[in-house]
Write a structure and sequence with these properties.
It is built from eight helices and twelve strands. By secondary structure, it is an alpha/beta fold. Strands 1, 2, 3, 4, 5, 6, 7, 8, 11 and 12 form a ten-stranded mixed beta sheet that branches. Helix 1 packs parallel to helix 8 (292-300), helix 2 packs across helix 5 (160-176) and helix 5 packs antiparallel against helix 8. Belongs to the SurE nucleotidase family.
Length: 311
């Protein structure tokens, strides 16, 4: 980022953080694959409402990590509203079905301005995007022509409010960089895949590509018990666990989101329903995000310096 752009960015961030509400409130559908009780989605729901947006949550009743965009045809689905908040819809099915419910029933008269999926517990990068329920929500939205952002945080993140602040800054930046208040936040069929390192160890913000590499590698083992994550237990039975990522195919893509988030960078990949978007579309969206670095820092308190493009 050059200095004139940086100065404009800092000025914009100062103006934005001094405002009590965004330029205009957005209609936002919020979903995830970790379930409606996840602390990450609850924190983001509260933050977006605090920002002045009209937010509706339609999320699975339980954890559906790894469900991709899967669903079952012609199967009855139970849906209920949270007793404490009628804008929280609890869908007893996969993330994709929760997204469909939100789009087809809650927003049946007018599509939302934005769908946000997450923040997920754990990164979704490289080949894992094809398996992710978080990305599955994004795919449903993009196929309907609705702008969408998938957000994934480090699995050990313990500050969901800071994660929410970064997502808030991203949404505000997309709004502020539009040519008119009613302009779509993203081009048709284009979304963002955003991955965050631990918010107390952010090195920078990186424009990335999906690539092949993921820090997580799924393997089938005979005994899952030794592979439990810290603070969790698994039964001594066969199943799929996280294996050694060093054994997987890398592909060597420059600016791979999996490699960059491991280095401590917030990664932003412009993707379509067919993953990486055409270069011209990607560049146009990254131009709109040029002020995100300063806005990220002001909104979340995290250190979000611009990362070097060359390695």
């Amino acid at each position: 980022m050059n200095m004139p752009t940086l100065r404009r960015t800092l000025l914009l961030a100062a103006l934005l953080t001094g405002a009590a509400a965004p330029a205009h409130a957005l209609d936002i559908l919020l979903s995830n694959d970790d379930g409606y009780q996840s602390t990450n989605i609850r924190a983001l729901y509260a933050r977006l409402k605090q920002d002045g947006h009209h937010v509706v949550m339609a999320a699975p009743k339980r954890n559906f990590s790894g469900a991709s965009a899967s669903f079952e045809y012609f199967k009855p689905v139970d849906v209920r509203r949270d007793a404490q908040d009628p804008n929280v819809h609890i869908v007893d099915s996969t993330p994709a079905v929760a997204a469909m419910y939100g789009l087809d029933r809650v927003f049946r008269d007018k599509a939302p301005d934005l769908v946000i999926s997450g923040p997920n517990i754990g990164w979704n990068t490289g080949y894992l995007v094809n398996l992710s329920g978080t990305i599955g929500v994004l795919e449903i939205a993009l196929r309907r022509g609705v702008p969408a952002i998938a957000v994934s945080a480090d699995h050990s993140e313990d500050a969901p409010a800071r994660v929410a602040g970064i997502v808030s800054a991203l949404v505000t930046q997309l709004q502020a960089s539009g040519k008119s208040p009613g302009e779509a936040l993203l081009p048709p069929g284009v979304g963002l895949n955003v991955n965050l390192p631990r918010t107390n160890a952010i090195r920078g913000v990186m424009q990335t590509v999906n690539g092949d590499y993921s820090p997580y590698h799924m393997v089938f083992v005979d005994d899952m018990a030794p592979h439990a994550l810290p603070g969790t237990t698994l039964p001594a039975r066969p199943g799929v666990v996280l294996g050694d990522a060093r054994t997987q195919y890398d592909g060597g893509a420059a600016r791979s989101e999996g490699r960059e988030v491991e280095r401590g960078n917030i990664t932003i990949s412009v993707i379509g329903a067919r993953l990486d978007a055409p270069p011209a579309q990607g560049e146009a969206v990254y131009q709109r995000l040029s002020g995100f670095v300063a806005a990220c820092e002001d909104a979340s308190g995290a250190v979000c310096r611009q990362a070097a493009a060359a390695r």
